[in-house]
Design goal:
With 442 residues, this protein is α+β, with helices and mostly antiparallel strands. It has helices spanning 2-39, 60-75, 95-110, 116-130, 168-184, 189-198, 232-242, 248-251, 274-277, 286-295, 301-319, 366-375, 379-388, 415-430, and strands at residues 77-78, 83-84, 92-93, 135-136, 140-141, 145-146, 205-206, 209-215, 222-226, 257-262, 265-270, 327-329, 336-339, 342-343, 346-347, 350-351, 363-365, 392-393, 397-403, 409-413.
């Protein structure tokens, strides 16, 4: 009987171990298959490493560039609300642009452009405002606000009682500075918690995907729509993931990944057809730059970022046109365009948010040039920065870029451009901004 009992016990252990090894084998197979799906045919030989720029102290000229960028935020600060205008002199903002301001505030402090007292006072004021702003359906921030009154507005800054919906991508971005505060400035934990208790973040995630909202086609109420395409979708999801939200599907590259050869480079694009899904599949610099300078990128996005950069370098080598493309405000109608590596089936496409052709407004983007310069120690990255290093006003900040067609400056001056300039310079000096190994308490 004892022998039989021992055999049964041993058999249970054997079955358990066999099941464990089988599960591990299946998991390894799935992981390997998905990694191959994610990575496609991309590979970098050891002799061809990505030429990341090493962390170093800013030069005097770079420090002056940072001070120039901060002037934008001094000029456009609304003292009664603690928010900053999205565009110079225009009293409206989005959550994306408010995130750019908070990241600029963090970056300016780390670069000693501003003193800790100013950083602390302005951060507390902004967080207090975000913890009390009116919300769409009492759930999440509206797509736009008047920076003077905190009223929900449309994109023309006209007040709207019920709002125009929320952007999950914009909200994902503003959670980046909040994660930085939680991890590296714990004295703001109470204020961040107040914001997150006011917002219902769960309303923008479903089945692991991000969902924005917009006025329903029926004309009554709002409808939820899946938001994000490759690059932006993964970037915006990372901050939510750090906060314990289920964004598993939004974080994956594999499901809709398609490589298209552009100027000899295999560039990652989103296979979802804009005609079917009613969302443009832009490939631009900004999402990859932000993922890199804020999170330090991951094993996939660092390769995708370099591919997007290399395509732009190759366009320059082919055409002689200095290329760093992203979405940008412009200083004339239609006032906002998407300069892309690829979108809606076209290489080097420039369109409006409605998909209308905007090729007359192709620009060298100041923020994209600064971002690539911060990331890569290459002759082309240096060429990019010399292509934009005069595009500023001493009293107002950095212009958005340079028109390819005319060679004239695009004199739109915005929170996003100046915020990313400051972030890029802070990355050069300190590395990735969301670095849990760094203690920034004072």
């Amino acid at each position: 009987m004892e022998s039989s009992s021992s055999f049964v016990k041993a058999r249970h252990h054997i079955v358990f171990l066999a099941g464990l090894f089988t599960a591990l084998a299946v998991a390894f197979t799935i992981e390997t298959r998905e990694y191959n799906q994610v990575m496609g045919n991309l590979s970098f030989a050891p002799s061809e490493p990505i030429p990341f720029r090493e962390t170093r102290v800013l030069t005097e000229q770079e420090y002056q560039w940072a001070k120039t960028a901060w002037r934008y935020f001094e000029n456009n600060y609304q003292d009664n609300t603690g928010l900053v205008n999205s565009v110079d002199g225009y009293p409206s903002t989005t959550m994306w642009d408010t995130a750019s301001y908070l990241m600029a505030l963090i970056s300016a402090h780390r670069l000693n452009v501003i003193r800790y007292e100013e950083f602390s006072l302005k951060m507390e004021k902004a967080l207090a405002t975000l913890s009390r702003i009116p919300l769409v359906r009492d759930e999440l921030p509206n797509k736009a606000y008047d920076t003077r009154t905190l009223q929900m507005v449309d994109y023309t800054n006209k007040p709207t009682e019920n709002g125009i919906g929320w952007s999950a991508i914009d909200i994902g971005r503003i959670l980046v500075p909040m994660n930085i505060l939680v991890w590296q400035y714990p004295r703001f934990n109470k204020q961040v918690n107040s914001v997150l208790q006011h917002w219902k973040i769960g309303a923008m995630t479903k089945d692991g995907y991000l969902f924005g909202s917009r006025p329903a086609a029926s004309g009554s109420g709002l409808e939820l729509v899946q938001e994000g395409r490759i690059g932006y979708e993964e970037y915006a999801s990372k901050a939510l993931s750090l906060m314990g939200r289920d964004v598993f599907n939004a974080l994956k590259y594999a499901d809709y990944l398609k490589f298209i050869t552009i100027d000899g480079i295999e560039v990652p694009t989103d296979s979802r057809d804009p005609a079917k899904y009613h969302a443009h599949n832009y490939v631009v610099s900004e999402s990859y730059i932000l993922d890199s300078i804020e999170f330090g990128a991951d094993s996939v996005s660092r390769i995708f970022a370099f591919r997007v950069y290399k395509a732009q370098e190759q366009r320059y080598k082919r055409s002689g046109i200095i290329t760093a493309v992203s979405e940008d405000h412009i200083d004339q109608a239609p006032y906002f365009v998407y300069n892309t590596v690829f979108s809606d089936g076209e290489k080097w496409n420039t369109i409006t948010d409605t998909g209308a052709d905007a090729s007359d407004f192709k620009t060298l983007s100041t923020k994209a040039a600064f971002g690539w310069y911060a990331l890569y120690d290459t002759p082309y990255a240096d060429k990019l920065i010399t292509g934009v290093d005069t595009l500023y006003s001493d009293s107002k900040g950095w212009y958005s870029g340079l028109y390819e067609k005319t060679g004239e400056a695009n004199k739109a001056i915005t929170a996003n451009t100046n915020g990313i300039v400051l972030e890029s310079l802070a990355y050069i000096q300190n590395g990735a901004l969301l670095n849990v190994g760094v203690d920034n308490q004072l």
